[in-house]
Amino acid sequence: MRTHRESVIEAFDEFRQEIDEHHDRRERLIKISRDATNLSKKVIFLLHRAMTEEPNNDSNPSLRVVRRGREKLREVQALYAQIRLEVQAERFWHYHRAVSPGLQEYIEALGFAHYLEHGTLVSYQEVQLSLSDENGIPYFTLPKEDYLLGLSDVTGELMRFAISGIAQKGGRVRAREVCAFVRQCKADFERFTPYVRELSKKQAVTSQSLEKIEDAVYAIVVRGSEYDIPPDMLDDIIAQSISTFSSTTSAKSRLGQRDIRNGDDYDDEI
Amino acid sequence: MDSCNVERLNELLEQDVELREKIKEQVTDLDKKTRNMVGVLNKIHSTPPESIPGLLDSVRPMLHSCQTTSAAMAALIPPSQFWRWKEMWTNSLRTAIFSAALVEFLATGKLISLPEVCQILGIKDEWKGRFALPVEDYLHGLISLVNELSRLAVNAVTLGNFEAPIQISIFVKDLFAGFSMLNLKNDTLRRRFDSLKYDLKKIEEVVYDVSLRKLAPPPQGGHQI
Question: What InterPro entries does the annotation carry (chain B) (predicted)?
């Protein structure tokens, strides 16, 4: 006959294995999620950088940039392919909190690239498809909450995009487009706030971003009205004064608005 | 976002809200049952040993009534979404586990096993992914059991039962030895485990008081006191 203590020890021995396995898996997923976050952030910076530096003279200037961004995003997708087995079946929701931040950052990057290319918000199905294998089988079911929260962050990127490029050729028209778009996003997201807890917080941030764009667009309209010349010509005048000035002034000051979040460093080589 | 996308998402989110409400109903129901059980079990502190079996007999049907709740939950929760909703009933379930463990200890003096709890609460293996009993919740239930037993050790003596503290002491030490084998992270389970030593100390003091005054027969076996 086993003593009581022996049977207790035996049971707890099994629990230990199970608990250790759980913690280890969680750690692994947090690590990968962090990698996904970092890579996604780099893609966002890459897109911003390329959009403000690239000479915008071809018909769709953003296409080349987006292609580079998308290539980089494939690395993030590979990370999710890699954790596929770790988050199978009920495990996904068990570890949802570990993978959620990375997912949202990825959706933000993908959503930003998608906007630059199509001028629309990436759809849920498109995001899910990007997180599926070549046969279209999802690595996991993307939570609607993460989709919405990730998308909500795109508006912040759009604000940076609109404002930092405002002095560029076509930048003022673009700022107005972005302004209208972000306004629409805000309205669309508002419907979902009762369902997704954290979304209201993000809506507040979106409101701030929207206000910044609106102020910038206002300034364009007010100042533009003083000169009765076509916008193209205004572009040329600005471009000229910048080129004569650029030898003394760093281009960086123009990007002063750009917000490098959390002081994250980013690699210029990507 | 195009409007059809908005509509579709809205619809899906609406479904989640409905599901949440249905689960909530079940949780409220389970909560009622566990509160009743805890209420009855609270009487162990003032019940003489000979009346304990009768008390336990009145709790058992209440425990078994949790089976209908378990089945209802398993039917509600979509496959693989167990962990998504689990937090809603965690507390109630832990109380049910605690009650089952306390009943088992008072009846047999033994630690109830995880599969035994599942059986009593009617949680079936094939529901995995929809409704299950995670180790973590079982362990939380056991810690509540130790908390309760440290009180019982004191109150048993008040009732003139001088052997109970010794029996409790042996049991709790076995359990503590089990818990000590776990590598716990800095979570609630860890914090509650850390607090177990105070329960242990309290029980030890009762055992000490009782033994010193030769109120209880000297304990057999070497490892206690």
Answer: Translin (IPR033956), Translin_C (IPR016069), Translin_fam (IPR002848), Translin_N (IPR016068), Translin_sf (IPR036081)
Tell me the C-alpha distance between A243 and A247, whole Å: 8
CA A144 to CA B186: how far, in whole Å? 30
Q: How far is A35 from chain B (nearest CA, A)?
A: 23
User: Is B13 in contact with A196 (Cβ distance < 8 A)?
Assistant: yes
Of A32, A28, A39, the residue nearest A73 (C-alpha): A39
Give the integer Cα–Cα distance in Å for A265 and A215: 29
**Which residues in A lie closer than 8 A to residue B179 (C-beta atoms)?**
12
Interface test with A, best of B9, B127, B187, B189 (most A CBs within 10 A): B9
Within 8 A of B9 by CB-CB distance, chain A residues are 124, 144, 147-148, 192
Q: What is the rounded CA–CA span in Å between residue A38 and residue B95?
A: 42
pLDDT tens, chain B, 225 aa long: 677 778 888 899 999 999 999 999 999 999 999 999 999 999 999 999 999 999 999 999 999 999 999 999 999 999 999 999 999 999 999 999 999 999 999 999 999 999 999 999 999 999 999 999 999 999 999 999 999 999 999 999 999 999 999 999 999 999 999 999 999 988 899 999 999 999 999 999 999 999 888 777 765 554 444
Q: What is the maximum span of chain A, computed from C-alpha positions, in angstroms?
A: 100
Structure tokens at B152: 């019982």
Mutate to test the interface with B, among A21, A27, A93 (most CBs of B within 10 A): A93
* CA separation for the pair A48, B3 (Å, rounded): 28
pLDDT in tens, A132-156: 999 999 999 999 999 999 999 999 9
Helix (H) or strand (E) holding B41: helix B3-41
Partner-chain contact B174 A4, CB within 8 Å: yes
3-state class (DSSP) for residue A138:
strand
pLDDT digits (tens, 9 = 90+) for A41-53: 999 999 998 877 7
Give B18's strand partners.
none
Q: Which residue is listed with tokens 């997180």?
A: A131
**Residue from A108, A126, A130, A116 nearest A174 by CA:** A116
Which residues of chain A approach chain B closer than 8 Å at the C-beta? 4-5, 7-9, 11-13, 15-16, 18-20, 23, 89-94, 96, 120-121, 123-124, 144, 147-148, 151, 184-185, 188, 191-192, 195-196
Rounded distance between C-alpha atoms, residue B205 and residue B216, angstroms:
14
Inter-chain touch A12–B178, beta carbons under 8 Å: yes
What residue ranges define each of the domains in chain B, with the CATH number in brackets? Answer: 1-133 (1.20.58.190), 134-225 (1.20.58.200)
